[in-house]
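Bug: token stream looks shifted between consecutive jobs. Job 1:
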Amino acid sequence: MYKYLNEKYKNLDSIAEKFSNSYLSNDPFPHIVFDNFFNEKLLNQILNDFPKNLEKIGDIYDSDPEKKLATNDTSKISENTNELLNFANSYVFVKFLNKISGIKEHLIPDPYHWGGGVHELKHKGYLNIHCDFNRHPKMGLDRRINVLIYLNHNWKESYGGSLELWDKEVKKCVKKIIPIFNRVVIFNTNDFSFHGNPEPINCPDQTNTRKSIALYYYSNGRPRNEISDKDHVTIFKNRPNTKDSTSLTYFKKIFWKIYLKKKGSSRD
């Protein structure tokens, strides 16, 4: 465990106990930000190993709501990155997430890294404000927690790409989080946890990109007041006085219809 974490975070049980109240009381929905959370040497190795050709080996998202690159294929990322993913899916780390979030249901990591893995936004890349898909399409579990790990040295707010947390009516941005190196953001995800990084990347050096690792955690069941009556894909929203997200990505619509059909559900 000590190989992966910064020394000051090595006792995850005490960290969870210390910060749980802050996590639960933070606006606009439960979340927390930790700086220098992981072993810096390991994270620098992961950054050095970051795929140089993600547009060729990964998935390209290029639509109204999002413009990014990603892969959840662990055969296409480095051994160091896989080791970190395995640690983040371990009993020790998942127990920490349960404790700090106060979620009563046992959290379950995602061996498929569905929608997660390594992400990259190049020049003009963005991800508009949204709430996440609420059910895992392979395991049928409820999505509960997001963990985002940022890999960007000397990143400035003026470069764009800050993570924005919005109120449930999507009328006001409550918090902006700059995606600096070794910053970790953990937050609850439900039908009202609207977030994204809608400001396009605009670095002076256009070869500089916004890099991150995304991990998602699930449970078998959840409180009914956290979700609507439907299983749904990612729901994008327009910020006030914008037309950020005028349509969903077409392949997501088609995939979800196929998934629900296989489940024998009439919902869409």
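Job 2, same session, no restart:
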Amino acid sequence: LIPRVKGETDVAELTLEPYTTEWGFKVAKAKGCPTSLPLNYDTAWLLGLYVAEGDTCKTAVRFHLGKHERTLVERLCGKIRKLGYSPRVVENRTTISVEIQSRILPRAFKDWCGQKAENKRVPEFILYHKDNGVIKAFLKGYVEGDGCIIGNLTQITTISLTLALQIQLLNARLGNIAKIWKRHVKDVHYIEGRRIKQKDSYSVGWTTGTNKH
């Protein structure tokens, strides 16, 4: 049995004040830098994509996308600009990185969504939001970054068990039955000559439009 968790928050704005010092917050305001983010569908989509493809460093939030995902890069840059930031696009050998330059925002994203694939999670202000549109936007961003859609079947794979269970809960909110199965990995793989020890992963699959609400 999977519970259908009821929404209990209607947060409309995410303040960045807790992620800097009092002086740093004053400086950010004086420079006209964003000191909060609206929690709307664009922001939820952005956070979903970060959970799928993002990480942080001290001075930036970064999204790592494939060379073939030019359209996704453009949409991402557009949503970043809506939040008041100027995206920086970096062409790497095999990927494209989109960066949001900031010292405050990386701390916020790391706190809300986790850092590194095994620690990624759905922010609680999305998991328990009353507006199902926010949930749908988050899932859309996450799936566009790290999912596969065939017909009405959607599947994602993650090494974060917490994230897999939360994705299942989000789907239950929307009336979708999501199943989880674990893939145990024993083999060691090599990528471009580097020895990679893979971790166990969790796949979550669900169908839309076939289950009653």
